[in-house]
Amino acid sequence: MRYGRRLSGLMGVALLALGCDAAPQLPSIGEQVAGPIDVELSLDGTAVYLLNSNRERIFASGSLLAIELSTWLGGAAVSGVIALPNFAGEIALADLGGGIGPLGVISIRESTASPISSRDQVVFLDLTNSLAPEFKDIDSAASGTQQALTVGLDPFGVAIAPLTNRAFVVNQLVDLGLVDDSSDDTEQLSVADLTNGAFAISERQSFVRTIFPTVGTTGLTRVRIDPTESYLLLFGRTRDFIVVDAASLTLEAKIPFSFVGGGLAAGGDIRDLRFLPLNNVGRQQALATVRSVNEPSLVTLDLTDLPATLGNDRVDLVQDTIVAVVPLAAGPAEVEFFQTGDGQRLAYVACFDEDLIQVIDLDIETVIDEIPTGDGPLALAISTLDKHLFVANYLGNSVQAIDLEPTNGTFHQVVAQFPEETP
């Protein structure tokens, strides 16, 4: 499957680069789209941020594009461009206190040095002007400008905790023969303290080798924070959620997916998780996409009681958190939640292998619609105000806007694309 080859393909390009004596002269990426790996709506809802990985190395660098919504949906307009090293992973946004303001954090899997043998970084963006992001000086007291922090090898997943002004980064590289498997740089959670005007890595933790000591290539890819910032969920090619106390960073529990469906035990992994708004009885649920050879699925989790278990040394199986499983098309990637004006609760899932978005009615646990997209839809963002879903097509080198207003004649259709080729 194409999605299964996504990360290995990127890594293969990076490894190939290690043997090159000199990089060819490549054109500037400018306003081009190249391997878009993530998409986010700006905090004020005025722009879409498209993170370009430049996976095929056809330009001199990757980039972050800011696309102004008010003009794009009536034409197309890039309002800001920031050049980034190749192989960016994920972007997280938050409006922080303590004089920090709107902030973006991006994981960079290839630093300015050699792609794998050096330690990679996270870079920080000042989003005060949402239409024209800038690099943020993260240590105003230091000489020169510091815009990045060094973390462990091959960082991918990032998340920001706005209540405590911290950022979390997971490193997905285990052992490619380039590093010692016992290195602190493998399968690591890095925590960045974003207070006091000088951002710094404050702690590092490693969990996966403790849980799966015999597995050589598990690999964390994502981190998510619950709305109360009580706990973190780490996941990826581990086939389990790893629950970590957000305050102490201690391992608390596992939520295993190996028993969900016959195919998951034979190669399923978790691709995304989104927390849902509290339901009408105060239950905290979340949606997770699970890629599996035999049974790709959207899984609904009930995590209401999870915070009460923290601090009790419960490193065990928590099976009663899984309350629903909906079969999906091949290669599910990111998921987004949308509630219509009449209260219908919908999940939108990017199905990378099938070039479409599946729409799931969460109340009846059924796929009710499918929306064709560009090639390799990977990342999603949603505007509840403008009622649009934004899709980053990783293989198609494009971003698309899909109409979510049921009363429109273009409902569940692509209404804009950048670049502007006809979808």
| Percentage of β-strand residues | 35-45%
Q: Distance N terminus to C terminus?
A: 23 Å
What is the quaternary state of this protein? single chain
Number of helices: 4
Main sheet makeup: 5 strands, antiparallel
C-alpha-based Rg, rounded: 20 Å
The overall pLDDT, averaged over residues, is 81
Structural class: mainly beta
Shape by Cα distribution: globular
Describe the structure.
By secondary structure, the protein is mostly beta strands. 6% of the residues lie in helices and 43% in strands. The protein has four helices and 29 strands. Strands 5, 6, 7, 8 and 9 form a five-stranded antiparallel β-sheet that branches. Strand 16 and strand 17 form a beta hairpin. The longest helix is centred in the N-terminal third of the chain and has 13 residues. The chain is globular and about 55 Å long. The N terminus is likely disordered.
Which keywords apply here?
423 residues, mainly beta, 4-stranded antiparallel β-sheet, 4 helices, 29 strands, globular, disordered N terminus
